[in-house]
Amino acid sequence: MKKLTTLFLAALMTVSVALPASAAVDIKKQHISSVPKMAYKNGIGKPQVIVLHETANNNASIENEVSYMSRNWQNAFVHAFVSDKRAIEIADTNYSAWGAGPEANKIGIHVELVRKGNFKQAYNNWLDTAVYYAKQYKIPMRFNAGKSGFVTHAYVTNHWGGTSHQDPVAWLKQNGVSMGQLEKDLKAKYNKGTSVDVSTPPVTHTPAPNVPSNLKVGAKVKVLASAKTYASGQRIPQFIKGRNYTIVQTKAERVRLKEINSWVYNRDVEVLKAPVVVVKPKPNYKKPNRQYAEKGIYTANTTVAIKYSPFVRANQVARLTPGESVHYRRVAFSDGYVWVQYMRSIGRLAWACAGQASADNSKNADKYGTFK
Ligand SMILES: [Zn+2]
Prior knowledge:
- The chain has seven helices and 20 strands.
- By secondary structure, it is of the alpha+beta class.
- The strands form three sheets. Strands 13, 14, 15, 16, 17, 18, 19 and 20 form an eight-stranded antiparallel β-sheet that branches. The chain has a seven-stranded mixed β-sheet with strand order 6-2-5-3-4-1-7, sandwiched between helices.
- Strand 14 and strand 15 form a beta hairpin.
């Protein structure tokens, strides 16, 4: 009986020790699928330090930070963000990230403290998350003491270089936490064990579409000369580039082009500024200087040109030979000549050149025939 009580008490004690002192932070795994997977200096799954950061943005929520990074990971990315509500792991901690210069990146897991929200709770979650990773990878409890243990981004800047940030020093100080206190709090968590719940299975997070608003169905785009491959991975032939196509379907990073029925990356196309309007070249004709309706019969006494417009530059389509007559209905003074308009036998209006105009276009000064 006594033995049983002891066992029961022991069980109770074990339970009470394992229970978290504060609410467990839950690390949600929402990995950005497109980030590169580069091993640490010591190999895959072998980080040596935990780099402690804060985001330096008062207004961004953890979701904002994650969303921003899913669109801008090419510039920089960390492993996880932690707020007062949750922790989100956006990159696999078995691989390196780009958070604090080359020396730290080769060896560190980067954990960001989000400013927005309740500081105490966020700070507590951040410590939990950092300690959880440290224990997972058997990183020892050391603080700002070389390439092992926990280091602040400021420590990296001051000792290893390649980066210039001083976080999280000022933000913690502003909230009453000195570097000495941070070390103490980390130690307390580390020695007690953390209460992080990592039951969430990893999910691959597709980055929010970062589609320029003008890349939409129906838009005309040009495939850039710099384009290398289709989204399928196949090489884009030279003759496809520099030409215009129509978007028929869009996805986060790519568009399908109607004329070649292929998916091309958004970065490889350029939207044409305005729809292409084919402007019919206007005949380079001036208006006749003067024209008016008049009916009559013109009989040529010399060979004269027939044109479809009363201008010297217009093409000649036929001619009248001496003695041929036309029933005209209109007279034009143009290009220094007098023209009469009549209906050709083929059913089309044409102009016969019927004389030379006076300088002031007032009269037919040199008639090429007779008028009745
Ligand atoms: Zn930082």
